[in-house]
Amino acid sequence: MQPTPRTRRTPQNTQYTYALGRRIHHVKTYPVQSPQGATILLYGHENGVTVTWRGGRRLKPQTQAQNKTKDKSNGSTSDAIMIIDSDEEDASPAFVDKPEFEDSSTSTATSPLPEIIQTLDLALGTAALKIAILPMPNSTSAEAAWHGADILKRKIVFAVTCATNEVYLVTLPLTPPSNESKARPELRQSLLAANAGRGVWGETLTLLGGQSRPCEGIAITLVKPTAATRSRSVDPTTTQQLTRQSTRVIVAAHSREASGTLRFWNVPLDAKPGAVNRVEAFQTEYLPSPLSSISFNPTKLTQLLAVISTQAVRIYDYSTPALPMEDASEGPFPTQGSWLLSLYPPFTRGASMSTTRKPIVAAQWVSHGRAVLTLLADGQWGIWDIEGASPTAAGTSSGSLFSKASAGLRGSAITNFSVAGHLEGTSPLKNPGNQKSPAATGASGEFVPMTPHTRRDALALANAGPEKLVSVRGGITVTRLSPPKGTVTGDETAILWLGGSDPLVSVIPNVAKFWDSQLRKAAGGGNLWSGTQLTRMVRLTDLAAGLLGERCTGAAAIPKPATTANTSTGENGTPPVEASFPVEILIQGESRVVFVHESEEATSFTSRLLGGRKKAGDHTDLESTKAILAYPRPEKPNSVAFNLSIAHRPAAENAALLRSTRRPIGGGLFSQDQPRGDNPLPSTEAPVGSRSQGVGLRFINDLNFAADQPDDEQEAINRNIEEEMMDIMEIDRELEQMERERSTKRVFFEEG
């Protein structure tokens, strides 16, 4: 990444753009921080994977580190990394990297953006297409023993798929390499000396074989063998060896071989740097159609969420044999797993009855593996409640499909969403004939404010057929925050995005609170604007300013420190009006990444939506609403005439026109004789002698003047959005009544 980003401010947020100078295929945020407090970012490009350490304590300058190293003895430190070169057996001793850091972390008081501490390129010799990390909550290196895997306190563990069919499992030290390590003379002897797999950075590389085509998706999780799993091993000695071995990782990847193939590898993490090991798949599942994405359950480590875009979302368990009595596996896992559950999306909307279901863009586990959040191609989102994770079913086990009573569940299906809605900008226009009550459908059914821009997007997606919806690209990123002290599970933040030149990116700051808020609205509790920002889905706007014309190809989240993620309570112990996002949003472009921060100068999302909160002690009356009304007010005429002609009119015709209209209109909208009020626009009169030249372009000066005028903040503060929404809903009811009566009825829309 370049050291200094380009900054762009919008009314809602501030965007920091890093130009990477290479095509980006995938970006991931590693869930474990480095020992010095840096956030680790992984992104794949055309030559491999780049690891970036961002924030935390800075590396000391090379001269200071060298002087301090000379004064010390040859003892090892906690951050020391021994790098062994296995190709040189009789050469000089192994290089020991001892990175040293400053005592204080990088200050964000002057700059809200953390610095890039160090970067490291892991060259694979081919393009890295997809990166997979463990589905663990975010934590520090000292607290990273997820499911007893102590290696996570020292190593970065991730998997990557390449354009040349290879799949690798990579481990790398959590501590960033020092500048001395990157400046070693032996690395300059050959262009391939620093390639991944040689061990020069302390990394290990394991090749996962068996596939003949590039894998289009990958996921990893830890092995958690159970008694039933160990009992399937034919040789007891083999079972004991597996139990004594170090931490192992299960890697799953899918490709388009045949009609679709899903493979699983069991990979140990005890490989030595400098040697590339090879592991074969222990389970291969041939599918009737290719998958679009996969992800492991963060709690039930053996369950895999497989998304078939044109059909359904299915749950697969690789440790449960499909035919228990006929399984002849000699390893710790069966040769074939089981498909447990299918989750079907609703049907597409059309003029006639449609038998095609909406294409699924993405699906991810939420509620710590007890529910599934999905995003459909038309912008609809929904939550399938699998194990009674709904806030209304808390503490009950009746809604759990994987409880002890249904341990033998096979091939079941779910179609109804617990809650559902549309991303802002994709909501179809209200059609009472096609919408049911929230109680009957389980959907939120809330009224979404429409603007000319969002109305255009809604019409485009609502009228799109299945053949157009299949081409929509998007995704869901779920970030599991570190649990507070004294609790077992933490909050979850979800990012839903639909790509394109004008991307739609929405953030759910707290999935549990958002789910509870949607259920309350569906049951009739609370109004449209109740709650804080944490209970809403917030759309990020003006993202094209940071992407500079590039398409949005992904989104990631970086957890904020606990001190800046939440706001303190208000006076007298009252809850805060709103809390900022607990994560920092990262938007992925084709060759650049954009970090999106909430604007420091702009008010909160709630305040902007409701027109701003009144200042303390300010009790002035609100101005009249500017909404479109279904019926004209008595004191105003029923129609308004506008003259948009640029031709010059005689004075007599202008006088007659002024008497016949409500507001004075001159010879033309941009003519010389247009009367001017208290705030006249600059004159557009042409110089004497050139009256006939450029008559049709006189309005340019007026447009430039209007574009330079600042926004009326007082008008925005006094605006009553709720009343305007009620007026629009009144128009919808009137149009519905007209359609039922099938009679001619005139409705006048007056100007506000």
From TrEMBL:
Residues 428-438 have a biased composition (Polar residues). InterPro entries: WD40/YVTN_repeat-like_dom_sf, WD40_repeat_dom_sf. This is Nucleoporin NUP37. Residues 54-78, 426-449, 664-692 are annotated as: Disordered.
